[in-house]
């Protein structure tokens, strides 16, 4: 006769990101809370999702497009610039907020147990909610200058978004966990966010990096953000060019066939490592906080 004893499990242990899917309702509540708290007392509220990227775009366009005359060498430079800015903004907001997510929710973590991964993942969803209005502006601007993308290009946009979301989640889990023990992590992330806009072809063309880096260019191209930004350029900017303008530009070779899978694998590797570190450190979050 078999005994009916229950198996014991370690308190606070879980299945990592799988628990996030199992607790989708809690995730939804956290996302709503994050949005309400962020815009509490704000006059514009969610409209800041439109104002901030537009102001950022105007500064870069005037400084680089007009003063440095980059718009002369890059047709439809405004579309080129903004298509990169919206994607980088999604990544920087995701990483910055997820790094602080555990520390900022210390009161909740001390009181009850729930999957700790919910906190950084919820900030990714909030960042995605801010990303969508920016994409709407990008689509509207692209349509004004003759945007006619193919279905293949639109699918590539979805793939680029997924790559950046995975990368942001992985790094958010990593730095969010480390930040509980070493608050200097926020300063490290701030420096990363300062560099990321310049570490991918947002403000300049990828050929400039290729010519400057030479044999080291493959490392630049293996950066998932570089690949994702170039996919956005290919999908939003390239279809707005006329036949004469297309001859003035050069797209990266094997962007979809080679570099997209490489970017996806690198992002998944970062996610795996971030989840591994997070699970090891999460056991003592409540004590450390």
UniProtKB/TrEMBL annotation:
The chain crosses the membrane at residues 54-70, 77-96, 124-147, 154-182, 218-236, 256-278. Signal peptide: none annotated. PROSITE patterns: ABC_TM2. Keywords: Antibiotic resistance, Cell inner membrane, Cell membrane, Membrane, Transmembrane, Transmembrane helix, Transport. The keyword Disulfide bond does not apply. It is found in: Cell inner membrane; Cell membrane. Its main location: membrane. It is a multi-pass membrane protein. It holds the Pfam family ABC2_membrane. The keyword Secreted does not apply. Residues 44-276 form the ABC transmembrane type-2 domain. Belongs to the ABC-2 integral membrane protein family. This is Transport permease protein. It comes from Arthrobacter cryoconiti.
